[in-house]
Amino acid sequence: MTSPGSPPRVTVLVTAGCHLCEQACAVVAEVCAAAGVGWQATDLVDTSPADRARWREYVPVVLVDGEVHDVLRVSADRLRAAL
User: Fold this and answer.
1) Cβ-based burial of 32 (10 A; exposed 0-12, middle 13-18, buried ≥19)
2) What does the pLDDT look like over 53-79, one tens digit per residue?
3) What is the spatial distance between Cα 73 and Cα 50, in angstroms, rounded to a whole number?
4) Residue 44, exposed/middle/buried by CB under 10 A (0-12, 13-18, 19+)?
5) Does residue 1 surpass a pLDDT of 50?
6) Which of 17, 44, 69, 73 could be joined to 64 by an S-S link, Cβ 3.0–4.6 Å?
């Protein structure tokens, strides 16, 4: 888990009603819990206009330490290795 005041290492950019986003969050939650790493889901509408334009066709987008890790689908094995 993240310590108080520190940002989560993993962020999933999502949109409401997206079944791929729900699946990605489930995988991320499981992998992060096992690794003791914090994560968060952020709705794309809460991001900058530039990020919305860049990612709207690719959600879910998984970021690890602020860098793009996966788009559309998340691989549990790849995420474990990255953490």
Assistant:
1) buried
2) 999 999 999 999 999 999 999 999 999
3) 22
4) buried
5) no
6) 69
